Amino acid sequence: MTSRKRKKMEENMCDNDIQTDISKILLEDCDLDITILLRIRNHLQNSKDKESEVQAVKLKIEQRFIIHLLCQYDAMESEKDKAIFDILCLLERSYQISLRPFFPMVWGKRAKDNYEKLRQLGELLHTKLTTDQVLDYLNPKLVWSTLLKSEQTTSIKIPEKDSSNQFYDARFILRLLATLLDNHAKMNSRKFIAVNGLSLAFAATSFISRSERCVAYLVLRRFLLHLTELDTDSFPEKCLYIYLLQIFKNSIENPIQRLPHVVAHFFARVTKLILHPEDPVYQPVLSFLLLKPNIDVQNVPEIYKLLLSSSTEHYNKERHWCLRLILDSLIEPNDYNILQKRFVSNNFSSF
Hints:
globular, URB1, about 60% helix, mainly alpha, URB1 C-terminal domain-containing protein, URB1_C, 2 domains, single chain
C-alpha cells in the first residue's frame, strides 16, 4: 500500500471517529465523557491548519452541538470544563464558527431553556437574556475565591487537594464580562460590582497570562466608558468608581502591564469597600485615594497608615484589613520583594 493511500485511509478513519464523537455528544440525555471531549479537542487542535479538515469540521458542527456543550458546562477549573472551553475557543478562532448567536453566553442545566428557545425560534425571534439575568448566574463568593486563587494567578504549581470545583475558570468569566459591556448594553452597574465582576477585572491585571490581562484591561476600560455615558443608571457610589478607575488608569505605565498581586488585590478590595461606607476602614482608605491622581504600582498602597493605625477605636480592624490583603497577595517571590520595599517583615516582628 502506498504512503498516499495509507494517509488517506488514516484521515478517513479519523474523520469517522470525530463524527462518532460528535454524534455521542448530541445525545440529549448523555453526560459528557471527558475522554470524548479530549479526543475532539485534540482533533480540532491538530487539524486547524489543514483547510480540507477545517471545512469538513464546519460541515459537521451543528447549533445543537454547541448548545449541548454549553448546557453541560459549569465554567469551573475542572478538566471537563477546560476541555469544553478549549473546544469552543478553537471552533471560533480556528474554524470561524461564530458564537455570537449564543451571546450573552450562559451555561449549565439552568441555561437549557434559553438555548432551546433559541433553537426553536431562531436568532431573529429569540429574546436574548438581559445583562442582569446573566449576572444572576454568577456566585459572588465564588468569583471572589477565583480572583484570589485561580490557576491563572501564577505559573508556580502548588501541590494541594483538588480544587477544580472551587473556582471559576477566570478565562471564561473575563470574556463573559467583556461581552456584557459590549455595544452599550443596558446594565445595573451596581449589580456588576456587587457580583465582584469589577474586582475580578482588577485582580486579573496581575495574572500570568498576557491574553487574560488584555481581557481584564478591556473590561476595566469598557466599564469606565459605561459609567461615563449619559444614559447610564445612577447610583450613590458612581462618582467614586469613576475616580477609582481613573486613578488606576493614570497609574499604569506600560500597555497590558502585569501588576504585583498586592496592588491588583488592593484595587479589588477597595472596589468592595466603596459599597460599605459603614466599614471603619472606608475613611482611611478613601482618604488615601483622594490625596493624589495616581499611585505607585510597585509599592504596597497605604501600608504604614493601616498597619500602624493611630485610631483608638478601629486600629484592630484597619490592621486586619491590611494583613488580609498582604496574606492573600503573597503568591510569588516578587510579591515578597514588593513588601520588603516597605520593610513589612520588620513591622510584623514589632507587633
